[in-house]
Design goal:
The chain is built from six helices and 15 strands. The protein is an alpha+beta fold and 235 residues long. The radius of gyration is 22 Å and the shape is elongated. The structure holds uracil.
Length: 235
């Protein structure tokens, strides 16, 4: 890979800014000042520094965002803020997108990445990755919901859902729900189908990755390597 491409991708800078930094002598590879923007390097092996700070190579970015209400899971939207606009400069790079969507009024864990292959695998119905939500209801939940959801409820007349697990909590207005798919407005429609209504929804887990309880609403952090290994695990 060319050094200017490496710098621009890893630091989310334009190619011309990366070239300017090289020209100013701010970039070193294995301790040697880089003289030319077309110098080739091996990102897996070479040690690259910018202004004395090592650039840790990341082929892809994996980000956990605690989405607040009112923000849209899209890469671009003319009217509302999008999840990408919440990312700090240090996490931004080209090609990022949310892998799976939450409704505008749903809070919680959004997985943002530039790894298209992983996102495809995650979103494929065959991978059945667990998604857990905290659901607040308008009316107390009823015990029969557990079996109705476990056997795969049909919503809106003809849409059959995969089996889902309802976990009651001490508060009858609050339940946790584990889904293995992501149909449009799925939980809201499931609750409507049993005669209830969702008043608040928050995603708290994707596969084995739990939304970091110390991550404030609206904030994002990188997903660690060990967390990533648990993405396809069942809890
Ligand atoms: N189900 C919904 O109804 N909305 C979401 O955002 C996620 C699951």
């Amino acid at each position: 890979m060319r050094i200017d491409k490496f710098i621009s991708e890893q630091e989310s800078l334009s190619r011309s800014d990366a070239k300017a930094m090289i020209k100013k002598g701010q970039v070193f590879v294995n301790g040697e000042r880089v003289k030319s923007a077309d110098m080739k390097l091996d990102p897996e092996k070479d040690r690259i520094t910018l202004n004395g700070k090592e650039i840790i190579y990341r082929k892809f970015m994996y980000i956990m965002l605690n989405k607040p209400e009112g923000v849209i899971c899209a890469t671009r939207d003319g009217l509302s803020a999008t999840v990408l606009e919440l990312l700090p400069d240090s996490l931004i790079r080209k090609g990022l997108f949310p892998a799976g969507r939450l409704d505008k009024d749903t809070e919680g864990f959004v997985f943002i990445t530039d790894d298209g292959a992983l996102a495809h695998k995650m979103l494929s119905p065959r991978s059945h990755i667990e998604k857990e939500y905290e659901v607040t209801l308008e009316k107390p939940y009823e015990k029969e919901y557990i079996d109705i959801f476990a056997s795969g409820i049909t919503i809106d007349g003809d849409e059959k859902c995969l089996p889902a697990k309802l976990i009651p909590t001490a508060d009858p207005y609050k339940v946790n729900l584990i889904l293995h798919e992501g149909k449009y407005h799925q939980i809201k429609r499931m609750m409507t189908a049993v005669g209830n209504r969702v008043v608040h929804l928050k995603r708290i887990r994707m596969g084995g990755i739990i939304l970091d309880p110390s991550l404030p609403s609206g904030k994002a952090r990188e997903i660690t390597e060990s967390e990533l290994l648990t993405l396809f695990e069942k809890v």
